[in-house]
Structure formats: structure tokens, C-alpha cells
Amino acid sequence: MQLLGHDKYLEMRAGARVVEQDEHGEKVLLLPDGTYFKLFRRKRVLTSAAWKPYAQRFVENAAALHRLGIPCPQVLQHYRIPAISRDAVHYLPLEGETIRQVIAGGLGEARADALRHQLLEFIHHIHSLGIFFRSAHLGNIVLTPENTLGLIDISDLKISWFALGPFRRRRNLRHVLRCREDREWLRKSTDWAELDK
Predict the structure, then answer these.
(1) Are residue 82 and residue 106 in the same domain, yes or no?
(2) Which of 26, 41, 131, 188 could lock onto 126 through a cystine, CB 3.0 to 4.6 A?
(3) Do 190 and 108 share a structural domain?
(4) Looking at the structure, do residues 64 and 6 belong to the same domain, yes or no?
(5) Residues 135-149: pLDDT tens digits?
(6) Which CATH number belongs to the domain containing residue 61 in this structure?
(7) Are 72 and 154 in contact (CB under 8 A)?
(8) Any idea of the CA torsion for 113, 110, 73, 17, to the nearest 10 degrees?
(9) So what's the pLDDT on residue 174?
(10) Could you give the CA distance from residue 66 to residue 148 in angstroms, rounded to a whole number?
């Protein structure tokens, strides 16, 4: 982790487009060079986020996913910015479109069926690698130009040494089905419909 002064931070974010923000301020910036700058609030209370900040989790998870061969963002640098009480990760985005974006762009039924099957196989694969992606939904799983699937928004995942057991696998698959629009699209597949019972 590298300390980043306020002036240097302002210089880095000059000309950036705000991609995501909340009531606490900016969360994700798209920099003019096409890289991203993700800001994480520093937690002051005694929570797991205070012991292991989300920025650190993002960095560690990116490294672990790369080792496991799962496409994900490539971390360029990890910063602490004391002046704004934030940690930050500067990264190259994962090329491609989220599955939600692919669906919105229009798919023939044969291609949609193939993508539903590919998604289910991908989730089974990451489970076999011990990856539990608590925030899994069709907005943070990316179809890359190589027609492989990868993960973004990776702070909230856990990687264990062993494959996930049946309970955690089913629980994680049900996370993917939480969003109504995602569920309606996925349930057009018999395999996904069975998981939603």
C-alpha cells in the first residue's frame, strides 16, 4: 500500500468521470486513460472491514483469482489517502460486458440458452475452486472478448482451500437469482428453474 497525498490524488482524478457514488461521496472513477480508481471508506468501528479493509480484500482477491485462472480486474496500485479518509485501488478493468449488458444488447434465443448454460458451468467451476462470491449477480459477471466469463466487484468474495460444499453452493446460486430481472431471464433455462424451487 502506498500513501497518496491530497494534491497528488486531485491530480490523478483530474478529468475523471464519476461512475458510481453514494451518500458518502464518490466510489468509482473512470480516469482519462481508461483505468479505474475505486475508493473505499475507512471504517472506524470494530468490524471485519476495520481489521481487513475492503481495498485490501480487493487487492488480495484479484491476485488469488489471477492465480486460479479466473479473469478479473488487474490491480495497478493500492493507496491510502488520509486527507479524505479513503483507501483506493487503481486498476485496469476486465475487458468485456457484464451479462446484464449483453442481455440488454439483444440475444437470439439459441445464444441466450448457451450463455445461461455457460454461466451455470462457470459458477460450478468457481465453486470447485473454493470461491464463494457473496455479491454474485449478472451485473458483476463479465463476458470477455475471448468468450470466457470473469468477475468484477471482487471485494466481497471469499476463497477457501477446498471446493465449496453443497449448502454453500446452493446458497451462492440462490444469490444469483435474487434480482427479479436476472431471475426471469435465468429461469428460461430448465437447470436454473430447478435451482429456484
Answers:
(1) no
(2) 131
(3) yes
(4) yes
(5) 889 999 999 999 999
(6) 3.30.200.20
(7) yes
(8) -110
(9) 86
(10) 14
